[in-house]
Amino acid sequence: MFRPLALYIGLHYTRAKRRNHFVSFISLTSILGLALGVMVLITALSIWSGFEHTLRDRILGMTAHISLYGGPLQDWRSTAHPLATQPEIVGVAPFLWIEGMLIRSGKVQGALIDGILPEEEAKVSILAERMQQGRLSDLVPGQDGIILGYALAEALGAGLGDKLAAVVPHVRPERRGAILPVYRQLTVAGIFKMDMHEYDAKIALVHLEDALDAFGSTGGRSGLRLKIADVMAAPRVAQKVLRALPAGYRATDWTQQHVNFFRALASQKTMMSVILTLIIAVAAFNIVSMLFMVVKDKEADIAILKTLGFTPGGVMAIFVVQGTVIGLAGTLIGVLSGAWLASHIQTIAPTIEAILQTKLFPPDIYYLSELPSEVRWSDILGTGLIAFALSILATLYPSWRAARSQPAETLRHE
C-alpha cells in the first residue's frame, strides 16, 4: 500500500548522502544517461522533421504539383484557360525541358534547361522569391538570357553579364531522325539559390520563346505546370483535369514523382526513432542496477521498517518513488536540453563545423545546404513520456525484490 510515509522515505533516500559512493555515482550516471538519450532523440527528431518539411516545401516550390503533358505548346493558353477557372487550381504555366550542356572557358556542366514564361512561372513556383542576382523578369524574349542555379554558376565560374554556350541534342526529321548538336550563345541574366543542391547545381532557365527558337521542342519535354491550393489533393485534381480535357493528355502529380523518396524519409525517421529509443531504454535500465545497490545498502533499514509494521507494498513504494524521482529528473533535464539544442542547432552547427573543419551536412549528399530543425511538441511530449514510462518500469523489479526481504534473516547478520 502506497503511504505518505513511503513517499517521505523514498524522497529522503534520494536526497541523502549515501555511505556507498559508488551507488551515488550510479544514480548520477542514470540521470545523465537518461537525459542524454532524451536530448539526442528530441534533437534528432527535430532535425529530421525540419529536413523533411524544408525538403518538401522546396521540392513543391520548384516542382509542379501537377504536370500536364500533351497538346501543342504554342497553343497552351487555350488549354490553360479552362483549367485556371477551376477552384482547386491557383496557377498554370507552360514549360519546356531540354537536357543539354553549358560551356564557359573550357568548363562543361550538364544542365536541365527549363524554358519558361517569367510572368506565368511566378504563379506556380517560388523561383522569383529565390533570385540572388537579377530578376526572373530579366528573361526577355530575343535577348538570349539565361538564369543559373547558384552551384551551377559557381561550377562554370559565371556571373551576371557573362557569356556561355548551350549545347543540346536536336532531332533533324529531314535527316531521317539524325540527332545533331545545336549551339547557342547565351548571356547570364540572373542567379537563383534554392538552398537545395539538386536544383542549384542542375537547373538553368531561359525564356520559352528563346528555347523554342534556338532548340525547338523536339528532344525535350513540354507541357503545363499546375499549382493547386491543397497539395495533398493532387492525385484527385489530376484525374479531374484529365476528365475535362480531350483524349491524348496525360498527367503526373508530385506524389507519383517523389512518393518513394518521402516514404524512404518516413521509414528512416521511424527506424532512427526506434534505435534512439533503445538508447533511452539502456539509460533507463541503469536505474535497475542502481536500485539493486540501494536495496543492498538499505537492507537493515528495510528490516527495521518491516519489524515496525511496514507492509511489503509500502517498502516497494519507497524504491519506486526513488527510481521515479531519478527518472523524472533525467527526463526533465533531457527534454529541456533537447528542446534548447534543437531550437539553436542552426547557430551551433556552423561553430562545430569550423572547429572540426568539416561539413556536417554536405549539400551534394543531403540535398540541402544548411541544417534544418523543426521543434514539434508532439515529438518532445512523446519522447518524454516514453523515457518516463521506461524509468518507472525499471523500478518495479528491484522494488519487488526489496519488498520480499526477510527482516529476521537481515538483522541476524547486522
Which secondary structure elements does this structure contain, and how are they paired or packed?
Layout: H1 4-15, H2 21-62, E1 66-69, H3 76-84, E2 89-104, E3 107-116, H4 118-121, E4 131-133, E5 145-149, H5 150-156, E6 163-172, E7 178-192, H6 197-200, E8 203-207, H7 208-215, E9 221-228, H8 234-244, E10 250-253, H9 254-284, H10 286-297, H11 299-307, H12 312-356, H13 363-366, H14 377-403, H15 407-412
Parallel strand pairs: 3-8, 5-7
Antiparallel strand pairs: 1-9, 1-10, 2-3, 2-6, 2-9, 4-7, 5-8, 6-7
Helix pairs in contact: 1-12, 2-9, 2-10, 2-12, 2-14, 9-14, 10-12, 10-14, 12-14
Which short descriptors sum up this protein?
19% strand, 414 residues, 2 domains, alpha+beta, six-stranded mixed β-barrel, 15 helices
What's the gist of this structure?
A six-stranded mixed β-barrel has the order 2-3-8-5-7-6.
Q: Any overview of this molecule?
A:
With 414 residues, the chain is an alpha+beta fold. It has helices at 4-15, 21-62, 76-84, 118-121, 150-156, 197-200, 208-215, 234-244, 254-284, 286-297, 299-307, 312-356, 363-366, 377-403, 407-412; strands spanning 66-69, 89-104, 107-116, 131-133, 145-149, 163-172, 178-192, 203-207, 221-228, 250-253. It contains 15 helices and 10 strands. The longest helix is centred in the last third of the chain and has 45 residues, at 312-356. 38% of the residues are buried. The model has no long low-confidence stretch (mean pLDDT 82).
Query: What structural class should be given to the helix and strand makeup?
Result: alpha+beta
Strand order of the largest sheet: 2-3-8-5-7-6
Helix content: 55-70%
**Percent in strands:** 15-25%
N-to-C SSE string, H for helix and E for strand: HHEHEEHEEHEEHEHEHEHHHHHHH
Largest sheet: 6 strands, mixed, barrel
> Any low-confidence stretches, pLDDT <50, length ≥5?
none
In angstroms, what separates the terminal alpha carbons?
27 Å
Question: Which outline best applies?
Answer: elongated
Tell how many strands the DSSP assignment holds: 10
Give the overall pLDDT as a whole number. Answer: 82
| Overall radius of gyration | 32 Å
Total count of domains: 2
Tally of helical segments: 15
